[in-house]
Amino acid sequence: MIAAQLVPTPVGPLALLSREGTLVAAGFTAEPKEMFVRLTPALQAEGLEVADGLGSAMEAVRAYLDGDLDALDAIPVSQPGTPTRKRLHAALREVKAGTTVSYGELAVRAGLPKTAARAAGSACAQNLIAPFVPCHRVLPSSGGYGGYYYGVPVKEWLLAHESGGIANPR
């Protein structure tokens, strides 16, 4: 069974979906089913159940919002993908809070220097576990914020929070 929980954040609810203590999806939505339908058919076959507490993931989000910007790093995650996508997602988890990289730099960090920035962009677009796999920390080399699955205002807030520009109003 996939367990789901909503955690309030200053930019809206964060849906957490977990299977046996490992996050399989997370995203800024009030409806966990929006994340559930993005899972593999095998995971969807397990069903979805709203839970009261997902323990460490929920506590990590609260700690992150309270200023422990590394709190999300300790939570185990699992998402499908090709070996290239998995390397890019692993490299994303190594990008420290308060810093950003370009899509091309992400490919280099993943040990894929010949991979086009487009592959890094695709890995970010297909990321199912935001902000634990912090695709919000990737910016286009041409400037600006680029896109973000949950909207540029959420990306801007996350980056400002991580750079110390926002105090959590909780």
Automatic annotation (TrEMBL):
Keywords: DNA damage, DNA repair, Methyltransferase, Transferase. The keyword DNA damage applies. It holds the Pfam family DNA_binding_1. PROSITE patterns: MGMT. Coiled coil: none annotated. Residues 85-163 form the Methylated-DNA-[protein]-cysteine S-methyltransferase DNA binding domain. Gene3D superfamilies: Winged helix-like DNA-binding domain superfamily/Winged helix DNA-binding domain. InterPro entries: MethylDNA_cys_MeTrfase_AS, MethylDNA_cys_MeTrfase_DNA-bd, MethylDNA_cys_MeTrfase_DNAb, MGMT_N_sf, WH-like_DNA-bd_sf. One of its GO terms (molecular function) is methylated-DNA-[protein]-cysteine S-methyltransferase activity. Its EC number is 2.1.1.63. GO terms for biological process: methylation. The keyword Transferase applies. It catalyses: a 6-O-methyl-2'-deoxyguanosine in DNA + L-cysteinyl-[protein] = S-methyl-L-cysteinyl-[protein] + a 2'-deoxyguanosine in DNA; a 4-O-methyl-thymidine in DNA + L-cysteinyl-[protein] = a thymidine in DNA + S-methyl-L-cysteinyl-[protein]. This is Methylated-DNA--[protein]-cysteine S-methyltransferase. It comes from the Bacteria.
